[in-house]
Amino acid sequence: MEFEQEIKAKLDKVISSLKHDFSGLRTGRANTSLLDEINVTAYGQSMPLNQVANVSIPEPRTLTISVWDQGNVKDVEKAILNSSLGITPNVEGSKLILNLPDLTTERRTELTKVAKQKTESAKISMRNIRHEYNDKLKKQEKNKEISEDELKTFLDEIQKTIDNYISNIDNLLINKQDEIMEV
C-alpha cells in the first residue's frame, strides 16, 4: 500500500508527542524534562532554560540548575516561579536548587487524569489519520484507481496498524500511571 509509510510516520509523530507530553508530568522522582517547557527572558529575548544553564539531578528528589551567567540567575528564578511547577527554588550563588515535594494522593490522582486526557487526545489524532487515509482510498476506488477488494484490504490494513498503535499508547498510559502512583 502506497500510504503505509506515510501513515506510520504520522502515527510515530503522535506517539512521540505523547511521550513528550508524559515527560512533563511530574512523578515522585526528579526529571530534567520537567524544565523543558520553561523559557527564560535573558539577553532581551525568550529562550529555553537549557540555553542559559545546565540541569542535573544530584538526588532522586532534587534538581540543580547551574546558570552560566550570574546575571541571569534572577531571570531563571523568575521563570521557575512563574511556571506551573509550583516549586520555589533555593538560590545559592549561580545555582538554583529545586527540591521536589512528595506528591499527595490527590495530586497523583489529578496527574493520572491528565495522562488519560493526553492519551485520549493522541487516540483522537490517530483516528483522524485513519479517517484521512480511508477517505483517500475511497476516492481512489471511486475513480477506479483501485478495486473494491483492494479497498477492503487496504482499509483492513490501516485498521490493524491503528489498533497496534493504540495498543502501544494504552501501554504507555499504564506505565505512566504506575510511575505517577508509585510511592
Describe the protein in words.
It is a single chain. This protein has helices at residues 4-23, 73-82, 105-142, 148-181; strands spanning 39-42, 45-48, 53-59, 62-67, 90-92, 95-99. By secondary structure, the chain is an alpha+beta fold. α1 (4-23) packs antiparallel against α3. The model has no long low-confidence stretch (mean pLDDT 88).
Largest beta sheet: strand ordering = 3-4-6-5
How many distinct domains?
2
Helicity, in percent?
55-70%
**What is the rounded Rg?**
22 Å
* Measured distance between first and last alpha carbons: 47 Å
Quick structural summary:
With 183 residues, the chain is of the alpha+beta class. It is built from four helices and six strands; from the N terminus they run αββββαββαα.
Layout: helices, strands, pairs:
Elements: H1 4-23, E1 39-42, E2 45-48, E3 53-59, E4 62-67, H2 73-82, E5 90-92, E6 95-99, H3 105-142, H4 148-181
Antiparallel strand pairs: 1-2, 3-4, 4-6, 5-6
